[in-house]
Amino acid sequence: MRLLLVEDNQELALWLSTVLQKDAFHVDCVHDAEMANALLGDERYDAVLLDLKLPGASGQSVLRRLRRQQNQTPVMVLTASDSLDLKVECLETGADDYLVKPFEIRELVARIKALIRRHSGSATAQISCANLNYDTNTRQFQIDEGTLALPPREHSLLEALLMNQGKTMSKASLMQSVFGLNSDTGEDALEIYIHRVRRKLEASQATIVTLRGLGYLLTPRRSA
């Protein structure tokens, strides 16, 4: 799961990024509205963690711009203000959740996962494609009752495809999910990981389909 953290307190941003990465999130971090707007215009994220007090422009302006562009990426506001009026304003502008600092990291992680689940259309922690199942709480894959253990990058690849099943994911989007924003890894490396995951899905009823010129799609395997 790929997150954008927008936080001007660099010490807090570093701590949050480190903690979330230990929970297997990919985190891109920026410290102002301009960079946040640039990344949200070019990149795909599973959720945005947005501070309101930013240099140059406010977090509310980032949120308004995002929604004006019809970008429905889930947004969680992180702020030191417990003002009810501000909370209502953010929610009416298009925020999906609002968490007041200081907060417990366990609550933050649980809320992020719930936010992403809701956005993917799942009311529970379980997301499935045919007999391939994924628990967003434990971050484990299963085929029927058996655990499918994957190395980190293969895990990130299959997670991204499963969380977006039914949608075509471009090579660029998948590469960001697997290798991160600043990686200079080539597309050949992504194709290697696609091949490896495909082989490990052979025992399942789910498969990765290549749509030439468009990207990849996780879908139930067609009956012969």
Automatic annotation (TrEMBL):
<dbReference type="GO" id="GO:0005829">
    <property type="term" value="C:cytosol"/>
</dbReference>
<feature type="modified residue" description="4-aspartylphosphate">
    <location>
        <position position="51"/>
    </location>
</feature>
<dbReference type="InterPro" id="IPR036388">
    <property type="entry name" value="WH-like_DNA-bd_sf"/>
</dbReference>
<dbReference type="Pfam" id="PF00486">
    <property type="entry name" value="Trans_reg_C"/>
</dbReference>
<feature type="domain" description="OmpR/PhoB-type">
    <location>
        <begin position="124"/>
        <end position="220"/>
    </location>
</feature>
<dbReference type="GO" id="GO:0000156">
    <property type="term" value="F:phosphorelay response regulator activity"/>
</dbReference>
<protein>
    <submittedName>
        <fullName>Winged helix family two component transcriptional regulator</fullName>
    </submittedName>
</protein>
<feature type="DNA-binding region" description="OmpR/PhoB-type">
    <location>
        <begin position="124"/>
        <end position="220"/>
    </location>
</feature>
<keyword id="KW-0597">Phosphoprotein</keyword>
<dbReference type="InterPro" id="IPR011006">
    <property type="entry name" value="CheY-like_superfamily"/>
</dbReference>
<dbReference type="GO" id="GO:0032993">
    <property type="term" value="C:protein-DNA complex"/>
</dbReference>
<keyword id="KW-0805">Transcription regulation</keyword>
<dbReference type="InterPro" id="IPR001867">
    <property type="entry name" value="OmpR/PhoB-type_DNA-bd"/>
</dbReference>
<dbReference type="Pfam" id="PF00072">
    <property type="entry name" value="Response_reg"/>
</dbReference>
<dbReference type="GO" id="GO:0006355">
    <property type="term" value="P:regulation of DNA-templated transcription"/>
</dbReference>
<feature type="domain" description="Response regulatory">
    <location>
        <begin position="2"/>
        <end position="116"/>
    </location>
</feature>
<keyword id="KW-0804">Transcription</keyword>
<dbReference type="GO" id="GO:0000976">
    <property type="term" value="F:transcription cis-regulatory region binding"/>
</dbReference>
<keyword id="KW-0238">DNA-binding</keyword>
<keyword id="KW-0902">Two-component regulatory system</keyword>
<dbReference type="InterPro" id="IPR039420">
    <property type="entry name" value="WalR-like"/>
</dbReference>
<dbReference type="InterPro" id="IPR001789">
    <property type="entry name" value="Sig_transdc_resp-reg_receiver"/>
</dbReference>
